[in-house]
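Tokens in:
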């Protein structure tokens, strides 16, 4: 009898920090999909709850006082993750500065790990944010999942209890997570067999 693989540790990174944001609704929904799976565990990294500094140290210099403490709330959780889901809106045809800031504070935490995307917004559903994130994460040696979850006119997809009304969105979430699981397991096995060389 074959041994069951260890659960994938999935970090759901919540990119929006705007007041009144819709991100918690979308995050609860995608987290519920992860929670239903036997092959994944989830850690929600909410950048509004774990703010990171926006001033970086000069190259080769230590971070400013307080920076290491702020990073300690985020960096170990990203390092421990086998895979990621980015939850992001679209701001001005791109993704939030808060998400880019969190990405830029880290490097090897992203290496040889897969990233799935859940984007939301108006008519575009956040797709332009995702396309730009693919370029950024390729530079950081991450693998992005082909199938995305894009919530067009997201505010109308949930009922008054914030439950998803759209079966197609639920199906898209399952497909994306199935692909994330495949890549997550494959890349974890590869990293365990041979450390990734950036």
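Residues out:
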């Amino acid at each position: 009898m074959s041994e069951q693989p260890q659960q994938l540790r999935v970090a759901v990174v919540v990119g929006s920090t705007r007041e009144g944001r819709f991100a918690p609704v979308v995050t609860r929904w995608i987290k519920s999909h992860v929670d239903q799976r036997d092959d994944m565990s989830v850690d929600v990294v909410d950048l509004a709850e774990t703010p990171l500094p926006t001033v970086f140290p000069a190259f080769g210099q230590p971070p400013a006082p307080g920076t290491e403490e702020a990073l300690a709330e985020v960096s170990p959780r990203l390092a421990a993750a086998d895979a990621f889901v980015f939850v992001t809106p679209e701001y001005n045809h791109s993704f939030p500065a808060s998400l880019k800031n969190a990405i830029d504070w880290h490097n090897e935490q992203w290496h040889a790990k897969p990233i799935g995307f859940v984007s939301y917004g108006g008519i575009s559903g956040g797709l332009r944010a995702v396309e730009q994130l693919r370029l950024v994460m390729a530079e950081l040696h991450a693998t992005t999942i082909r199938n995305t979850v894009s919530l067009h006119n997201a505010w109308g997809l949930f009922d008054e209890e914030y439950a998803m009304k759209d079966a197609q969105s639920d199906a898209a979430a399952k497909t994306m997570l199935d692909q994330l699981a495949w890549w997550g397991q494959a890349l974890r096995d590869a990293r365990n067999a041979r450390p990734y060389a950036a």
